[in-house]
Specification:
The chain is of the alpha/beta class. Helices cover 38% and strands 25% of the residues. The strands form three sheets. It has a seven-stranded mixed β-sheet, sandwiched between helices. It has a two-stranded antiparallel ribbon with strand order 2-3. The chain has a two-stranded antiparallel sheet with strand order 8-9.
């Protein structure tokens, strides 16, 4: 069964406050993106589609793929305005370069601590359910706020998960859901609905339930300067 990872590395990282995109910041002398690609290189994944900011394709090819000898990166393609555009371009690249792909792992390039164990757990689940995402139950008590900023409800902490990536799907299934998203993105925008992850695409355009799979509390997304310090401690 052919598996492909779409690694998203097209973000600008505005919250990092750096001129360098977060996926290229150095951790112990190597770019954040290196650790992400290395995890998939050493896993059961057969191939990788790397989605970069438009104009950075050649830089990634030379400074990431060739410099570190990654063999599984099949294509490097430019991303789009929103995260979901970048995912869609990655899915189209799979259709073009890896038509035999059966399962796709969609992962944030700025999550360098994805592990082989996590990938295996998600792979075993996606073969059963066609749609799963990794995440962890939250540690803090969560409050749902009303429109005026007052606490309205308190959901049971055991039922609230912080969702991570990879988010893993049957390729044909997620491709069809994304095609529906692209046809309807204008109406969603008019309704003020923002698509923030791949599971939400499935929830919005299909009747399929998305299974939650255990990730790791270390599987952080590097977004702020504080995250970099935490990541260095993990390494």
């Amino acid at each position: 069964m052919k598996t492909t990872a779409i690694v998203l590395a097209a973000g600008q990282g505005k919250r990092m406050g750096s001129k360098v995109a977060k996926q290229y910041l150095l951790l112990k002398g190597r770019p954040v993106l290196y650790y992400t690609l290395k995890a998939f290189e050493d896993s059961l994944i057969d191939s990788v589609i790397l989605v970069t900011k438009e104009g950075e394709e050649e830089y990634c090819r030379k400074e990431m793929v060739e410099a570190y000898g990654f063999q599984k990166v099949t294509a490097i393609v430019p991303g789009g305005r929103e995260r979901y555009h970048s995912v869609f371009f990655g899915l189209k690249a799979i259709s073009q370069y890896i038509p035999e792909c059966e399962y796709v792992f969609i992962h944030d390039g700025a999550r360098p601590f994805v592990t082989n164990e996590m990938i295996v757990r998600a792979y075993e689940e996606v073969k059963r359910s066609k749609a799963c995402v990794v995440g962890m139950p939250v540690k803090d008590t969560i409050k749902i706020a009303d429109e005026d900023g007052y606490a309205k409800t308190t959901p049971k902490r055991s039922r609230v998960w912080a969702v991570q990536t990879p988010q893993v799907f049957s390729f044909s299934f997620i491709m069809e859901a994304y095609e529906q998203l692209m046809k309807n993105e204008g109406s969603l925008r008019e309704k003020g609905i923002a698509i923030t992850d791949d599971a939400m695409v499935v929830e919005t355009f299909t009747e399929k339930k998305v299974k939650l799979v255990e990730g790791s509390y270390q599987n952080i997304k590097i977004t702020t300067p504080e995250d970099l310090k935490i990541a260095e401690a993990f390494l």
